Structures are given as structure tokens and as C-alpha cells.
Amino acid sequence: MPSCLSHALVPQSAPSTEGEAAPAQSKAEQSPRPGSAGADPQDRDVPAVPRALQLFTFFSLTAAVLSFAGNIIGSGIFISPKGVLEHAGSVGLALIIWVLGGGVAALGSLCYAELGVTIPKSGGDYSYVTEIFGGLAGFLLLWSAVLIMYPTSLAVIALTFSNYVLQPVFPNCIPPYNASRILSMVLFP
């Protein structure tokens, strides 16, 4: 099992014979995490078959900031600056448009943070839509995401990457239509 997944499921404390929950170990009594300094597989006290499992819910501040930044910025940053600058007409107006767009994205991320606190289930959009609108709406969202939205997004990313790779080969013109499509299919099968 990869080390990044070794803590995805953490066993809960098993109930004692009297029917009461066993006392939780103090930090000093807990063995180190696998992959950390001083962690030895023989030193860990791992039950053979844990009675109950719970998800490991730790998400560091650094991971959260990088995740949110990646979701907010996305791949559009590689596609849209040229178009925004062409349509805005000036660099100052283009920067104002980018700042306003960043504000809208920040408000959207705050809405998702509120949903995550209100509906504490894993699954993202699917969980939120299923909880609010029911199973059919959740199914339709997931179905359209898997069959339409995600593949379309990946196709745009592949075409953009191919255009950037081909730009040095065709410095004075737009890369040929078929060349960028073929390179996209080769690089992203």
C-alpha cells in the first residue's frame, strides 16, 4: 500500500469486555506514523481485524491552500489571458477584470466551504446535490460530470498543452489544426 494511503483508514478504539469504550491512548503512548522517523513495522500495535474504521480527516493548511488555489486558478489561466487582454483593450482594465474574477472565485470557494461545514460528507458536489435535491439529481450530476464535463475539460487542457508545445515549431503562425489534435491524442490517450 502506498505510504500516502496508509493512514486513510484509522481504527477506532475497540470496546472493552465490560461494554465500555477503551480509553484512548495519550500522545506519548501512540506509536509513530508509518513513514515517519522512528517508525518500525514491528513496533506498531495494529489489530489484526479492527472492529470499526473511520476516515482519516486530517488536511493540513498547506494542502488546503494549494488545493483551493489549484481549483480556483485551474487551467484557464493558460488559455484566457490573451483573450482578456485583446478584448479589454488596455492592461489596466485587463488587471481589473482579473481581480474581479478572482473575487467572484473567492466568493464561490466560500460557498463551498459553507456547504462542506453544513453537509460533512465526502463526495463533493455529488454529496451536496444528493443531500439537498435527492438521489436522482445527484445521479444526473455525476453522470453528466463523468460523461461530459470532465472529458471536455481534459480535452481543452490537452489541446492547450499541445498548442504551447507546438508554438516553438511554428513561431510566426498558429500551429496547424491537425498537428495540435494529433499531438493531443498522442500525449493524452
From TrEMBL:
Residues 1-43 are annotated as: Disordered. The keyword Plastid does not apply. It comes from the Eukaryota. It is a multi-pass membrane protein. The keyword rRNA processing does not apply. GO terms for molecular function: L-amino acid transmembrane transporter activity; neutral L-amino acid transmembrane transporter activity. It is found in: Membrane. This is Solute carrier family 7 member 10. It comes from Junco hyemalis (Dark-eyed junco).
